[in-house]
Amino acid sequence: xxxxxxxxxIKTEGKSAPPPSLLPEWRPFESLRxxxxxLFDSFHTGFWRAPSMPTLFDTRGVGTPAVDCAExxxxxxxxxxxxxxxxxxxxxxxxxxxxxxxxxxxxxKEEKKKDYYLSERRYGSFQRSFQLPDGIDSDKIEAKFDKGxxxxxxxxxxxxxxxxxxxxxxxx
Length: 172
What we know:
Oligomer: single chain
Strand content: 35-45%
Structural class: mainly beta
């Protein structure tokens, strides 16, 4: 049975604060995580890890989501793939012509059997920001989340829609 798309609230911030930094997010432990993953990948033998299993510090499922950005005549559209997340785990903000999509996944798994007990916890978060041009009607921004895909529609103002002007070419 198809579930209806979930509308997410959009947070808009006042124009008094300075614009957020455009620098990429600083991740001091990313290279350390890769090195540790490579170390564990070198130990393919043994019963505790098969090559197809995720690594100890795997961030798949959260990581940096795939995003498509498109400009249409009347709006901009940002589509993000966020599998295995719920609408409650996602936050969408728009301030200073910057769209920020962030989320966090918390997963806990517990399995009790006669001869063993398994308890796993995985946490991960992401944040993506996109600088957009002037002329967005922030009061009409919509975000919909359906089947793991977030679609944010940012309508253009009337002035931004009609910014193209045809100029006649004169001859001598």
